[in-house]
Amino acid sequence: MQATDRERDVRPWGEYEVLEDDDRHKVKRITVLPGKRLSYQRHQRRAEHWFVVAGSATVTLEGTEHRVDAGQAIDIPRGAAHRVANNGADELVFVEVQIGDYFGEDDIERLEDDYGRA
């Protein structure tokens, strides 16, 4: 897949780009704008590993906040409620590796959302 053929999506909080998509894993580069956060959500069919490459993330995992700085990572178990926020002044960029048996966006169960999405 050439770089120009990669799946991209712009969201209210920033954007993501799919770097690799396989039957057993999916890899995304996610950019979160300053002051924005993703929905508090969970997935039934995948676990995620987040490696921060720029900025600092505030990750809420099962109700507990964790600071994850550039060069650090955090694991999101399958079924765990989670959210990432960018409370800094610069863009937050992290690589997300999804492991499971299904990676569709319809495996997102949103528990809370700043943008009115169900």
Task: Please give the structural blueprint.
Layout lengths: L7 E4 L2 E8 L3 E8 L7 E3 L3 E9 L1 E6 L2 E6 L3 E4 L5 E4 L6 E9 L8 E4 L6
Antiparallel strand pairs: 1-2, 2-3, 3-10, 4-11, 5-8, 5-10, 6-7, 6-9
Walk me through what this model shows.
The chain is mainly β and 118 residues long. The protein has one domain: Jelly Rolls. The chain is built from no helices and eleven strands. It has strands spanning 8-11, 14-21, 25-32, 40-42, 46-54, 56-61, 64-69, 73-76, 82-85, 92-100, 109-112. It has a six-stranded antiparallel beta sheet, with no helix packed on it.
Give a nutshell description of this structure.
The chain is mainly β.
Tags for this model:
mainly beta, Jelly Rolls, six-stranded antiparallel beta sheet, 55% strand, 0% helix, three-stranded antiparallel beta sheet, 118 residues, 11 strands
CATH homology-level superfamily: Jelly Rolls
For this structure, the CATH topology is Jelly Rolls
Shape-level CATH architecture: Sandwich
Percent in helix: under 10%
Query: Class, according to the CATH hierarchy?
Result: Mainly Beta
Whole-angstrom Rg: 13 Å
Count of spatially separate domains: 1
Largest sheet: 6 strands, antiparallel
- What is the global morphology? globular
Structural class: mainly beta
Q: What number is the mean pLDDT?
A: 95
How far from one another are the termini? 32 Å
Order of helices and strands: EEEEEEEEEEE
Strand content: over 45%
Total helix count?
0
